[in-house]
Amino acid sequence: MAEQPGTPGETDPYDLGDPAFTRQPVWSLRNGAQLLLAILVVLPSVFATSVAYDGGAATCEAGWLTTPCWRWIAVEEPIAAINLLFFLNVCVGFWVVSLVQRSCWLIDLYWTLVPPLAFVFFGAHPAAQGDPLRLQLVRGLLLIWSFRLTYNYLRRERMRFGAREDWRFAKQRREMKGFWWYAFFYAFLSQQVLLMGLVLPLWAIHHASMPIGPFDGILGLSMGLGILIAHLGDTQLHAFMQANAERARRGEAKKLVLDTGIWRYSRHPNYFGEQLFWWSLAGFGLVTGHPWVALGTAINSVVMFVVTSMTEKRMVARGERAAAYHAYRGRTSMWVPWFVRDDA
Questions:
Q1: What is the largest distance, in Å, between two alpha-carbon atoms of the chain?
Q2: N- to C-terminal Cα separation, the chain
Q3: Cα–Cα distance measured from residue 259 to residue 336, given in angstroms and rounded to the nearest whole number
Q4: Where are the domains of the chain?
Q5: Cα gap 21→11, rounded to integer Å
Q6: In Å, how far are 22, 207, 290 from 287, measured between CA atoms?
Q7: pTM value surpassing 0.85
């Protein structure tokens, strides 16, 4: 959910005036502690991976909780192993942290970090035999994607770690009495389904020996285009929010709808760019003879459609914006950048 520029509660998604930022300065003990937490929180998975692929015995004689058994699971069933690590380290571990902090902010940050970590995990497997050029192509694009989205997350959060959480989580926390247990499923287990589904093509490219071909190049270009579109969308949105903040400081009326730049041709170009990136990555499953890995991407697209609908309902929740946004929606494509319907 990191690509969604939301704010907690019912704060306007175009608003930069969230008081959470003033409560947690960048150069503060709390912000430093939150950053340290974000670094340390995945060390259990790093340690488990090093134990699994250190060349030790791959047997399971002493029970599944023992190190030999873990090696056996990781070597024989790497997809099951990475899901086990995610469940224990993220679903359970991050959930426990969220109970203490009353915030699910960590999962937003790790949306940008889990895919590169999954690439490393699958690449460390002793049976990994992917074509070196294909691996370099995907690794490079994945790192660019992660850097871009991490940069956008830090820019959106103004370098504050854990100062606020995604508006959907905050809304449920405020409205649901038993959100503390519901959050395990809503904020964390659901993310396992999405993230572990999206990284399945990374397993495919590490376990397929066929050489790189022209279709790989097409998919690589498509991934790069997705990154570019998403970056343009997020950057133009950020500039729009800053301009509105300046208008507010001058006592001027804010602009109600962003409908310039790439946003003139798509109401959610950042979402479209993300989908293009992931479907292009899923295409490597077809190239390597594992088309079934696209199932996770399909599930993510369905969820993204629901998220888009939620975002649009929120955009018209404020009466002064409703008319302008309805008109914008009538003339502009939802995801795919397309010609503007000026007669709408």
A1: 72
A2: 31
A3: 15
A4: 20-331
A5: 13
A6: 49, 12, 8
A7: yes
262: left (phi over 0), alpha (psi -120 to 50) or beta: alpha
Q: What is the pLDDT of residue 1?
A: 36
Please give, one letter per residue, the 3-state secondary structure of the chain: CCCCCCCCCCCCCCCCCCCHHHHCCCCCHHHHHHHHHHHHCCHHHHHHHHHHCCCCCCCCCCCCCCHHHHHHHHHHCHHHHHHHHHHHHHHHHHHHHHHHHCCCHHHHHHHCCHHHHHHHHHHHCCCCCCCHHHHHHHHHHHHHHHHHHHHHHHHHCCCCCCCCCCHHHHHHHHHCCCHHHHHHHHHHHHHHHHHHHHCHHHHHHHCCCCCCCHHHHHHHHHHHHHHHHHHHHHHHHHHHHHHHHHHHHCCCCCCCCCCCHHHHCCCCHHHHHHHHHHHHHHHHHHHCCCHHHHHHHHHHHHHHHHHHHHHHHHHCCCHHHHHHHHHHHHHCCCCCCCCCCCCC
CB count, 10 Å around CB of 154? 14
Total residue length of the chain = 344
Residues whose CB falls within 8 Å of the CB of residue 79, separated by 6 or more in sequence, listed in order: 200, 203
> Are residues 108 and 165 in contact, defined by beta-carbon separation less than 8 angstroms?
yes
State how far the Cα of 8 lies from the Cα of 168, in Å rounded to an integer: 7
The C-alpha atoms of residue 198 and residue 279 are separated, in whole angstroms, by 9
Kindly report, residue by residue over 129-185, the tens digit of the pLDDT: 999 999 999 999 999 999 999 999 999 999 999 998 988 898 899 999 899 999 999
Q: From CA 187, how far away is CA 95, in angstroms rounded?
A: 8
pLDDT digits (tens, 9 = 90+) for 3-57: 333 322 334 444 555 677 778 888 999 999 999 999 999 999 999 998 888 755 4
